[in-house]
Each structure stands twice: as C-alpha cells, then as structure tokens.
Amino acid sequence: MCGLTGIFTSRDWTDERLTAVTTRMSDTIAHRGPDDSGAWVDGAAGIALGFRRLSIVDLSPLGHQPMESASHRFVVTFNGEVYNHRDLRRELESVGCQFRGHSDTEVILAAFERWGIRTSVRRFVGMFAIAVWDRQRRELSLIRDRLGIKPMFVYHRPGLVTFGSELKAIVACDEFDSALDLASLTSYLRYLYVPAPRSIFERVSKLSPGHILTVSDAASSLPESVPYWSVESIAAAGNDEPFRGTDGDAVSQLEALLTDATRLRMQADVPLGALLSGGIDSSTVVALMQASADRPVKTFTIGFDRREFDEAQHARAIASHLGTDHTELYLTGHDALAVVPTLAEMFDEPLADPSQIPTFLVCQLARRQVTVALTGDGGDELFGGYNRYIHGERLIGGFQNWPRPIRRLTAASLTSVSAHRWNRMQDALRPVFPAAGRTRLIGEKVHKFGDLLRADSSFGMYRSLLSAWQNPEVFVAGAGPNASSDPGPRGDESLSLLEQMMLADQGAYLPDDLLAKVDRASMAVSLEARVPILDHRVVEFSWKLGRKFKLRDGRGKWILRQILYKHVPASLVDRPKMGFSVPIAEWLGGPLKDWAGDLLLSTEPGGVLRGDIVREEWDRFLAGNIASAPGIWALVMFQAWQARWLDAPSLAG
After folding, report:
1. What's the gap between Cα 389 and its chain centre?
2. DSSP H or E segment with residue 259
3. Which of 91, 257, 356, 602 is deepest in the core (most CB within 10 A)?
4. Cis peptide before 197 (omega within 30 of 0)
5. Which ranges of 28-145 does DSSP label H, i.e. alpha helix?
6. Is the peptide bond before 271 cis (omega within 30 degrees of 0)?
7. CATH 3.40.50.620 domain position(s) in the chain
C-alpha cells in the first residue's frame, strides 16, 4: 500500500518548482508509505509524479516508484496491489518481456507497453489507483479500481491538474482553491459521506470506481472519465443471464471464487493477518485463510467494556475453533474517545460514520504485529446482509401503494412519540413480548419508518432509510431545496427493489463510506487492508445469483453462511447482527458534550452552517431526541473538519 501525488500543468513551472511542490504534497501522506519516497519530473511537459512507499511486494530498491517502463515510454506511480501479477508476468515473459525485480509495478508497466492501458487494466485483479504518464502521446491517465477500494482525488483549474490519494495532498499545493461545494456538504449531512464523483471542495472530484480519466491538455476543461467496468452493467448482465444451478452448485462456485480471491490476497513479503469481528463476513475470510495456510493465521479483535457493543467474545470463539493466533484488546470508552480529536486530520474529507473509531483502533492493534490485514468488507452489500434490505423491501413494497395522505398521517402519528419514549416502552414490553427486546434502539427505527412513509417514491423511501437528516439543506447557508444528490446508481426497471437497493449501496455507500473509512483508518497506521470479498469476479458472480441465494428464512447472506458452516458450527455465528458500532448518542450527551457543544455553538452569522438551526437541533438532542444522534455527529464532524482544514493555516504555507 502506498500513496501517490502528481501535477500536470500548462504553466511555465521549472523542474525545481515541480519537484518542490510534488514533494510537499507527498510528505503530507507519509503515513501511507513510510518506507520510501520518490519524485519524477519532466518540466518541459509540465508533469510531475510523487510517491510514498509502504513496501509489501519486492522490498528491494527495484520496487521504487515512480517507475519507468523498459522502453521509457510510460512512467507510473501506483497505489495498491495487482494480485494476479505473477500470472501476467509469466504471460509477458513468454512473449519476450524481461524484468529486473518481482514487483507488480513492473508488471503493470510491461502490460501497458504490450497491451495498452485500457486492455491491461481490464486484466488486472486487484485494488489500485494508478497515475501513468505516456511520453509518446503526452497524456496523463488516472485509473481507479473497479469497486473504488483505493482513492483518487483530482483537482482542476485552468492550466493546472493535481491529484493524490488523499485530499490533504492536494490541499498542500500552493495554488489550491478551498471553495466548498455546498451541494456536497448537503449530501454529506444526509448520508454521512460525500458521494462521488463530487468532493467537499468545488474544484476537486473523486475519480469514480472503474473509470479512467485521460488528460492531454491541462489548459482545457477536464474531460469526462470513461468506465472500463461498472457495477450497473454487471448487475444488468447478471439479471440477463442468472445462475441456474442447484444450491450446492452455487455454494461450490462461490467458495471456489472466494478461496482463490483469498489466496491471492495472502501474497506478501511482510507479516500478514486478518481483522476478525466474529461476524459472517470476516469469519468466512479467516476460515478460508486458515484452510489455505500452513500455520495459524494472525487474527485481531478489539472489545469494549459495554456488552451491547462488544463482539470480542464471538470473535474469540471463532478464532479458537479455527485455531488462529488470536490477539484481542479490550478498550474502555476513554480509549475510544481519545481517538476523536484525531479524526478531522485522519479523514480530510468529512466522514461521519462512527464506526471509524473502532476501525482505526483495530487497525492500530493489528499494525503492532503485521503490515497487511485481510478484512470481510463487502459481504453485506453483495449478499443482502443489511436488515434494511429485508425490512426496507417489505416496508417499501407494502406501503408505496398507500394513498399519500394516509402515509403522511401515519408518519405523523408514529413520530409524535419521541424515540426515547419508544425505547422505554420497549423495555416495559420485553417480559411479555421477548421478540421486542431483540430490536436495538426501536425508537430510532420507528422514527426512520415515519420518515420513510413521507417519501414520494420507492427510491425516495429507500433514500429516507439512509438519511441522517431528511432535509439537510436547512442547515447549509445558501443551499437550495433538494440540494443533495442521490448516491449511487439505480439500475434499470428490470431490477427488483432489493436489487436496486443493493446496487445503490455498491455504487456509493460501499466506496464512499465503508471503503474510504477502512482506507484512511488503516493507512493512518501504515497498514494495508485487503478485501477478498470485493474481488470483481466475486462481485460479478453475486449478480448472477437470485434472491434465494442471498435472502432466505428471513435472513441475509444465506450463501455465505453455507460456506462458513463448513468450517465453523452454526451455533457460533447465527445470532442477531450487531455491526461495528459505538454508543455515539451516549457519548455526545456525556463525555463529548462540552467538546461537541463548543463546536456546534461556534457557528457564526454568515458562516457555512446556519447557527440557529444547528443550536435548535442540539438543544432537542440534549432534551432527549437521541434519534438525531447520527445527524448531530455529522454536524460535529463537519465543524471539527472545518476548524482543521478551512480555519487553520494552509498546508501549502
């Protein structure tokens, strides 16, 4: 894992200036690559490439970047891993290509020379963000992997294009324009992340997953990026040619794909392990790792001193059964809260997913022993693991045909009772109706249901399920109504409502929230996180599987469970979904109250946020409206981000 930066300009910048600015940009992301750094500059062409290296494959100087191809036509800086590089190397050697070292970077360059950029990228199995300069065509190509596992930010103003693995690298350029994108801010307050291709800054975009952006003239408008793979087309293709085999055939085929994906991601010249939560996804990955390993796999789990937020005991049981070399660390709320002041630095684009805290802590734990860790991310989005798929499909399907006045009247009735009061009612009903006690935070869910009923369409209903604030534009000064955009693709009408929900999540929530969270949290401690479930071949097969392979008997991830049951007793994994969460409402009303209040009450007239609305919602939260905790957290995280990245002295200074 590494970090990349670069500049492409039509201005008359000297080699010295290009080198100095690129180096400064790269230094801001030294945490992504503490082992080595490099810069390559061609002042006559106005191009500079920068790099920070975390050595994983080929630890020798022969893996140094930026790297030139054998003919010197291509120069590349590359973040990520191409896992099938050994197979590609053998094929390239068979037609005369020669290699000095054994890094995947060399293979990438040889492939570009032999097959061209677009054809090569379609053959890569891996996670990657690539910047490649073609000396012959005088073109810069920026490339992002199919699922958006690795980031690529791009800044443009007339005559200047800069790019990098994190926003902080781009901010470090001395000509950065920090104007905010108010529509992106509104989207962030709704979804807790900024959906691609926009970013929090007006002049910065995120390269969409599975896209190539080719720039030949920095003075012209930035061209449209071109997809080489898209989850929309994969979903449509899977719907056109569904899997028609038996249950056993489906399980065997997916198991073979996951096993190969896992084995490929176990290649490393440094210590390797896995993050184990004890859930279906990470347990499946660890089980397949252990089945392929000749020694106990190192696994890592953190536990909390609050039982309702603690999965460490489940992870311990899985690790014991599989025989892994398991490490767990129990943390107090104080340990978790100590991370909060670092979040705005770590997440240089606002992100308000509270699981960023435990994600960082488990990565920090793992980094003490390993440099690479496999994770179980992606299982929920691919195989229907979220409760909102099951309940949302039922609710939306059942209520979308209700007359609109009836829906609104029902919504008003449900939300007239506070979430806190609903939760107290649940506690009273628990002895009589045990099933009621198995739903955590029932009051928050009832209020979500009320918001859903107010929506105008089926997709609008699903959007309401995802929204922290139903009308986030009221917080943003100068934002018009409906300023936020819908995240992710919707697919065509041939897709079922369930498939449309999953498609939207795979296209936006997965890359822009979950994968961004894992990337920043792991890279903050120089840990490479690999995600075998998001091998594109697994994703393609998942879209061939009908709903019966995903949702069955009222539960999601049926097919993943069948694979896991071959390695672990069902009794160890069949339990209500907990998620990787923290008691954010309790923290905001308790130990974080003063800090959060200071940030929220610091909004000034004429500022980005409307202070009167922010204060009103903060007061409502403190009065017991804990259903708004995710939205309050988003406001707090934005204020902390603004204090770090807008109010503080520029990094380019």
Report:
1. 19
2. helix 247-264
3. 356
4. yes
5. 85-94, 104-115, 117-123
6. no
7. 232-339+349-383+505-572
Q: Give the DSSP letter string of 117-155.
A: HHHHHHH--EEEEEEEEETTTTEEEEEE-TT--S--EEE
Helix (H) and strand (E) counts for the chain? Answer: 27, 17
* Interval 142-165: pLDDT, tens: 999 999 999 999 999 999 999 999
Contact indicator for 240, 495 with CB cutoff of 8 Å: no
What's the CA gap between 608 and 183, in Å, rounded?
A: 12
First vs last C-alpha separation in the chain: 28
Q: What is the pLDDT of residue 75?
A: 98
d(CA 324, CA 6): 42
Q: Which token pair is 358?
A: 């435990």
Quick: pLDDT tens for 600-649. Answer: 998 877 789 999 999 999 999 999 888 899 999 999 999 999 999 987 55
Cite the residue boundaries of each domain of the chain with CATH code 3.60.20.10: 2-229
- The beta strand positions in 145-266, using DSSP E, are 153-157, 160-164, 204-206, 211-215, 226-227
Cα-flanking dihedrals φ and ψ of residue 226, to 5°? -120, 130
d(Cα 196, Cα 207) in Å, to the nearest integer? 7
Residue indicated by tokens 């997953």: 209
Does the domain at 232-339+349-383+505-572 match CATH 3.40.50.620? Answer given as: yes
Residue 272, SS3? strand
Please give the single-letter amino acid code of residue 583.
P
DSSP 8-state code for residue 98: -
Q: Are 392 and 416 in contact (CB under 8 A)?
A: no
| Single-letter code of the amino acid located at 523 | M
Distance (Å, whole) CA 119 – CA 345: 38
10 Å CB burial of residue 460 (0-12, 13-18, 19+) is middle
Euclidean distance between CA atoms 456 and 331, whole angstroms: 44
| C-alpha distance from residue 624 to each of 424, 465, 594 (Å) | 12, 21, 17
User: Do residues 203 and 179 make contact, with C-beta atoms less than 8 angstroms apart?
Assistant: yes
Amino acid code (one letter) for 24:
R
- Distance between CA atoms of 435 and 96, rounded to whole angstroms? 67
Contact 533, 281 (CB under 8 A): yes
Q: Is the distance from CB of 458 to CB of 396 less than 8 angstroms?
A: yes
Interatomic CA distance for residues 55 and 102, integer angstroms: 12
CA atoms within 13 A on the CB side of 15: 6
Question: Residue 584 corresponds to which amino acid?
Answer: I
Helix (H) or strand (E) holding 331: strand 325-331
Residues 6+ apart with CB under 8 A from 230: 210, 489
Q: Could you tell me the two tokens for 74?
A: 């291509």
**Separation of alpha carbons 436 and 281, rounded Å:** 26
Judge: domain 2-229, CATH 3.60.20.10.
yes
Residue ranges in the chain whose pLDDT is less than 50: 432-434, 437-438, 650-653
Around Cβ 375, how many Cβ atoms within 10 Å?
A: 27
pLDDT value for 652 = 45
CB contact at 8 A, 256 and 292 = no
Please give the Cα distance from 435 to 443 (Å, whole number).
15
